[in-house]
Amino acid sequence: MDGGSGLVDIDSHKATLIVDIQDELRKIPTQSTNSTCLICTEEKRCIKFCCSSIICKECFPNYFIYGDFKIKCLACNQLVSPAKVFVTPEFIQSLVQLDETKTMTQNIDFQICTCGAFSINSTMHAKQRCNNCQRWL
Questions:
Q1: DSSP assignments along 79-106, one per residue
Q2: Is 69 left (phi over 0), alpha (psi -120 to 50) or beta?
Q3: Rounded to an integer, what distance in angstroms lies between the CA atom of residue 128 and that of residue 60?
Q4: Domain spans of the chain?
Q5: Do 36 and 42 contact (CB within 8 A), yes or no?
Q6: What's the CA angle centered on 88, arms 42 and 18, to 5 degrees?
Q7: Within 10 Å of residue 137's Cβ, how many Cβ atoms?
Q8: pLDDT 10s digits, 20-69
Q9: Fewer CB atoms near the end CB (10 Å): N or C, the chain?
């Protein structure tokens, strides 16, 4: 099928990000003094990522996961770029790829083969061949 790709399915991608977030958090610098976390309200060394959004490293994973893997300022509701918070280029690229996959699944011509390959039917023919397993769809 034209437009096929080797993208991982969204649930597997999210599961990988959940595992990787712990390693990534160790690399993110915190404030030099203790601050009050806006989620748990405890005095800890926190991450500041926008206006006055200050979250401790213990609360950040749940905030990030339940925010659909996006970072939204708690004060001004502005979306924060992953590059402003995270350090590792691979982790940032993985988040960008997740967003691209989510966007692609909203396309009306989006198809998923039984082998798990994603593609967009760009030829408009009813019968398409999967580039991954060569099965006719």
A1: EEPHHHH---HHHHHHHHHHHHHHHHHT
A2: left
A3: 43
A4: 1-28+86-137, 29-82
A5: yes
A6: 60
A7: 15
A8: 999 999 999 988 899 999 999 999 999 988 888 899 999 999 999 999 99
A9: C
